[in-house]
């Protein structure tokens, strides 16, 4: 089993749509979770952290379900500029090294 | 402020040749990481430097890969001899102190794309 598994995508949605990405992780001892965003042929960048209580940043909402070892990212009112690959990330190891999922590609169409 | 820079952006070599990738982290970042993405796979950790010391090299695939960070500034990753399966994008990232362990934020370079023919 992969350490971090994500919806394979791609997700093709119209502007204004709401889209949700899911992610599961295998290590129940994991403590820290994040979503990164990667534009085509660019570097990954931190989008937001994921907290147990759930957290929101504008149109983006991240949630964590520790019992199910499940993380989600909800994007409301999708914009063309949201088109990217979204990477689910878990901190692993003693030095905070990041464990990435394969990513889910989102294409927002006009 | 300059971000993480990597060189070259793309390298095409033949099997058996040697390639050296370079990474310049953000100034003042003691932590430097190398990651790799093989086509169709997830980004995977290779190793972690704290200043000039290798903190964790558990992700290095084999002894054909050698990473150095002399003086604790820039780092190089040498692949010798290169094999077909080494093709992929090699990302370098840096962070302040134990930033990644706490905030999860690593600052990545745009990557060096390696193609081994």
Q: What is the number of E strands of chain A?
A: 11
Biggest β-sheet description of chain B: 7 strands, mixed
Q: Write the element-wise H/E pattern of chain A from the N-terminal end onward.
A: EEEEEEEEEEE
Written as H for each helix and E for each strand, in order along the chain, the element string of chain B is: EEEEEEEEEHEE
β content of chain B, as a range?
over 45%
> Helix fraction of chain A?
under 10%
Number of strands of chain B: 11
Coarse shape of chain B: globular
Low-confidence residue ranges of chain A: none
Distance between the termini of chain A: 37 Å
Q: Ranges of chain B with pLDDT <50 over ≥5 residues?
A: none
Average pLDDT value of chain B? 92
Largest interface: A-B, 27 and 27 residues
Overall, the morphology of chain A is globular
What's the helix count of chain A?
0
Average of pLDDT of chain A:
92
Structural class determined from secondary elements of chain B: mainly beta
Radius of gyration of chain A: 13 Å
Rg for CA atoms of chain B:
13 Å
